[in-house]
């Protein structure tokens, strides 16, 4: 066999090995993408339950206590309103996520106040925590906690963490605090 044929065979083998490696990597990436989408679907389902539960709890309260003082009734109505809008935003996010293959440029990023998001989440989840005998509070630095992100998605992250703490921690107090330099803690 001539040296040309040997080199050609060796090169052909290299090309086939490279193709097999690329195929293997592509299959691994596809499996990871499918795993991510499945987990995302589970997470979205869980996230949608939170505002729905808050709306139902608020409506039950209004129904069961028709003589609530006006201030309490307005606070509950505001909670229903906020959760309905949050649910609407989450459904928009779901629509966006289903088009994720188009890229991250589809997600709207803006300057958001993390302290405002956390405090809103705490206000929203306080009635659920109170029913379980849990007190929630936040400790935030005096300087603004601004970040570039998606308000709805960040709210979902904090709401999920705090809600899971309410449901599964077995504690009587939940503290959300930050050092203002990027370290967050829920305990």
Can you describe this structure?
With 187 residues, the protein is mainly α. The chain has four helices and five strands. The strands form two sheets. A three-stranded mixed sheet has the order 2-4-5, with helices on one face. A two-stranded antiparallel ribbon has the order 1-3. The longest helix has 62 residues.
What is the CA-based Rg, rounded? 25 Å
What is the rounded distance between the termini? 73 Å
Largest β sheet strand count, sense and barrel closure = 3 strands, mixed
Helix content: 55-70%
Write the layout of secondary structure elements.
Elements: H1 3-64, H2 70-98, E1 110-113, H3 114-131, E2 135-139, E3 146-149, H4 151-168, E4 173-178, E5 184-186
Parallel strand pairs: 2-4
Antiparallel strand pairs: 1-3, 4-5
Short description:
With 187 residues, this protein is mainly alpha-helical. The chain is built from four helices and five strands.
Key features of this structure:
187 residues; elongated; 5 strands; single chain; mainly alpha; three-stranded mixed sheet
């Amino acid at each position: 066999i001539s040296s040309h044929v040997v080199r050609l065979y060796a090169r052909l083998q290299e090309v086939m090995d490279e193709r097999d490696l690329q195929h293997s990597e592509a299959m691994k990436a596809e499996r990871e993408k499918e795993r991510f989408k499945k987990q995302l679907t589970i997470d979205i389902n869980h996230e949608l339950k939170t505002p729905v539960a808050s709306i139902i709890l608020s409506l039950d309260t209004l129904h069961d206590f028709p003589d609530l003082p006006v201030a309490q009734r307005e606070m509950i109505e505001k909670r229903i309103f906020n959760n309905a809008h949050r649910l609407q935003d989450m459904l928009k996010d779901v629509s966006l996520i289903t088009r994720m293959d188009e890229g991250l440029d589809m997600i709207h990023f803006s300057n958001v106040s993390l302290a405002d998001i956390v405090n809103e989440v705490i206000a929203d989840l306080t009635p659920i925590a109170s029913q379980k005998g849990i007190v929630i509070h936040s400790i935030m630095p005096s300087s603004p906690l601004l970040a570039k992100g998606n308000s709805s998605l960040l709210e979902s992250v904090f709401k999920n963490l705090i809600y899971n703490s309410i449901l599964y921690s077995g504690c009587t107090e939940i503290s959300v605090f930050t050092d203002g330099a990027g370290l967050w803690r829920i305990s």
